[in-house]
Amino acid sequence: MTSLLLTLAAPLQAWGSGSRFTTRSTDDAPTRSGVVGLIAAAQGRRRTDSLEEYVDLRFGVRVDQPGQLLRDFQTARTLDGKSSMPLSYRFYRADARYLAVVSGDRGLLEAFADALMRPAFPLYLGRRSCPPAEPLAPRVVDASLGECLRDTPWQAATWWRRRCGAEPPMLEFRVDKGAAPELVVDGETVVRDEPMSFDPQHRQYGWRTVEFGRTPVPGLDARPSEDGLDHDAFMAV
Fold first, then answer.
1. Strand, coil or helix: what is 36?
2. What is the pLDDT of residues 125-161, one digit of tens each?
3. DSSP code of residue 55
4. 37 burial class (0-12, 13-18, 19+ CB within 10 angstroms)?
5. Interatomic CA distance for residues 71 and 23, integer angstroms
6. What global pTM score does this model have?
7. How far is CA 211 from CA 65, 128, 170, 214, 227, in A?
8. 25-51: per-residue pLDDT in tens?
9. What are the C-alpha distances in Å from 94 to residues 68, 91, 180?
10. Neighbours of 39 (CB within 10 A)
11. CA distances from 106 to 3, 70, 112, 232 (A)
12. How far is residue 57's CA from residue 53's CA, in Å, rounded to a whole number?
């Protein structure tokens, strides 16, 4: 079994699977459609291109640092300034960090990793206003999706680990149904998050069943891979 691991971190992220009209919501973890879109953008695919290559991939995500929900609102006027557009509300996850895992054919995953290292289009975490704050650090490993979610060292920032104290929380995960038998599942839900077409004229998403649960924090002695990313300006010297 081969898996591709990604670290998703940014001041703001937005992973909506149910946004409608003037309310643009966000889920509490990255969506399958969002991560597929991220990979497709890195490969230089157009929104009208087929997504057949991604159909057989298995997807899971672990919430290493949940951050907090942030609400913003936007106003707009017509070019002549005479009319106002409807007020829209947009929701984000602030200061969150996730471990995203995609399992599939090794050759395909290695091609994804190469593209993510040298993306054809700019990458963003859910919305164009949410660029990554650090490299996605794509790495292909010989491990199952469940093993990656269970065993990969905790990716939370040092300041977040301090806040958690001596007893770190259990880490929540979301995974395609049946894709991670190594994990203890608490329940399942159905979401409209199976990307079928990103064509802006006719976006299409199918339903997928997602299992969720919690797993203990692994690798507590592991340090973040990038120097300086965990600086806390408010920490006493």
1. helix
2. 999 999 999 999 999 999 999 999 999 999 999 999 9
3. T
4. buried
5. 10
6. 0.86
7. 19, 28, 16, 11, 34
8. 899 999 999 999 999 999 999 999 999
9. 5, 9, 28
10. 25
11. 8, 37, 10, 38
12. 8
